[in-house]
Amino acid sequence: MSIDKTLKSQLGLARSRNVLSRGERIAQLIEEDRWAPGKSPLGLPKVRVQKAVAGKKAKKTKEEPAKK
User: Fold this and answer.
1) How far apart are CA 60 and CA 57, in angstroms?
2) Torsion over CA of 16, 22, 25 and 26, rounded to 10 degrees?
3) pLDDT score, position 26
4) What is the Cα–Cα distance from 63 to 68, expressed in whole angstroms?
5) CB burial of residue 28 (10 Å; 0-12, 13-18, 19+)
6) In this predicted structure, what is the pLDDT of residue 2?
7) How does 44-64 read in b/e, with b if 16+ C-beta sit within 10 Å?
8) What is the pLDDT of residues 7-49, one digit of tens each?
9) Is the pLDDT confidence value at 3 over 70?
10) What is the model's pLDDT at position 11?
11) Threshold 0.90, pTM exceeds
C-alpha cells in the first residue's frame, strides 16, 4: 500500500540522521585515521554522528556616530 500524496512531507528527510550506512561509517573512520586498508567491513567500531546546529544571530552593536 502506498502513502497518499497529501501525507508525504515536502522536504523528505530534512533533519540529521542518527544512523550512518556502512559506507558512511568507513569514510568517517578513514578521516579519523581509524581504518586500515584490507580490514573487514564487518564489526565496525561506533562512529559519533555530528548533529547540525543552527547558527545563532550575532548581536547588533550600536555604532558611535562619526564626529566631525
Assistant:
1) 9
2) -150
3) 94
4) 15
5) middle
6) 80
7) beebeeeeeeeeeeeeeeeee
8) 776 666 566 678 889 999 999 999 999 999 899 999 999 888 8
9) yes
10) 60
11) no
Q: Cα–Cα distance between 18 and 30 in angstroms, integer?
A: 19
Measured from the Cβ of residue 67, the count of other Cβ atoms closer than 10 Å reads 4
CA–CA separation, 49 vs 32, rounded Å? 13
Cα–Cα distance list, 34 to 10, 14, 30, 61, 68 (Å)? 38, 29, 6, 45, 62
The DSSP 8-state label assigned to residue 50 in this structure reads P
